[in-house]
Amino acid sequence: MPKGRKKDAGKKPPVSPVADVADDKSDAGTVISSGSDVHTINLDDGIGADGTEDQAYAAGSIDLLEEKLKDAIENATDNSAKSREASLAELCSGFERRLLYDFIAGREDTLADIVERSLHRGKTTEQVLAGRLASLIFVQLGSDCGEFYGKIRNLLLTTHTNASVPAAARSACAEVLSIGSFIADEEPETFSDTLRKLSKTFALSYFKGDKTAPQYPPEVTALHAQSLIAWCLLMSVASESIAVDELNLHLRRLPELLESGDVDLRIAAGEAIALMKEITRDVHMEKAKKPDVVSLCNRLRELATESTKHVAKKDKKQQRSSFRDILHSVEDDDGVFQRVRFGKEVLDLHTWRAKHQYQTFCNVLRTGMNFHLRMNSLIRQVFDLGEPILDDLMFSGSKKADKFHRQLQQSAMEKNRTMSRNMHRGNKQAGNANFDDDE
Phi/psi at 13 (nearest 5 deg)? Predict the structure, then answer.
């Protein structure tokens, strides 16, 4: 859903699909900093962990990629679980790195059947891959994903709320539900229902009746953290009436999650509190039950400076960095600031709303985030980046653009060869001249 739009607003204009280009940029990992400590991320550093890229992407051949994806679609219903998982991974890889709107739009029913079958019958790995595939399809189709989302929404909700399903699969469904609901133009009642289902999951980590934090296995705690993150994404675009209802239910109890023994859940809870603080500045809440700000800030300060020996160094570093920003936002009513450089453009994130949205798309698109920031109309609409710039559209993956790109490369190679030959001729002539002088 584009930035600033509320769930009970009218329909959005359709997102025009952009043809696809080759891209070889790095992953879009991120750390948010606030105040004057501005953290800038350059998404053009490197081309991947191993320094190489799949030839299908590097060569810019859209035809080759589509053939690979067609084979993957055929194998996604194979009897072998390993074959199905490999096919789903292949589809995810292709949709992550390229814009394939026409390819997907012509196969919506087939892809929906693949996702449904994998979620319903597959084991944990296959279910997680199916969820990731669905998220990527939402991002590819943009505002046209409503029909696809409607086909799988009920199954996603059933899988997410089913306690007998592995926690990892339920976590994947939580992410898919939030992204689908974020992009699709859901009715307010449906949107609110999705929020309630997600909040019911992470609320299980609230204090028990004796005011102590419950203990869960790590995978269940990860499910609660992901459900909270998904809930925050939807809260970032919720209408005022829906936001007020949710804040009345959870605003006072969210600080209880700061006592969790899991660092990821603590950080997710802290960022949720910062987001709720930001939202309360924009909505009318006279009767809301709010947490005690003084005790909350004291606890946030403890987490921002924690030096407990039993906590891993990596976890402590991550926690301190996150809670410094969260404390700054809660104490001073400030947002966050992060600068992301990609290609010739810069994206500035000034609010916790934008931070949650950006991080969600990073988690889905991974190494393709740079490309989609430049070329995906939906992503650019969410972050107010305007239409893709002309220089990027020149190499947009069509056959004509591929041919033009090859001609440019060939011309550059011929120019280099000509310069090299001229240089050698010059050296040879100089050597002959010296030889004649010696004689």
Answer: -65, 150
Q: How far apart are CA 33 and CA 43, in angstroms?
A: 17
- Give CA–CA dist 32/326, Å, rounded: 10
The band of 312, judged by pLDDT with boundaries at 50, 70 and 90, is: confident
Taking Cα atoms as reference points, which of 99, 157, 174 lies closest to residue 396? 99
- Other beta carbons within 10 angstroms of residue 224's beta carbon come to 27
SS3 348: strand
pTM of the model: 0.79
∠ CA 146-189-152, rounded to 5° = 35
> Cα 6 vs. chain centroid, distance in angstroms?
20
Please state the φ and ψ torsions of residue 82, each to the nearest 5 degrees. -65, -40
Amino acid letter, residue 385: L
- Sheet-wide strand order for 345-349: 39-42, 338-342, 345-349
| Short-list 315, 220, 231, CA closest to 266 | 315
Q: Are 81 and 423 in contact (CB under 8 A)?
A: no
| Torsion of Cα atoms, 53 then 57 then 58 then 61, to 10° | 160
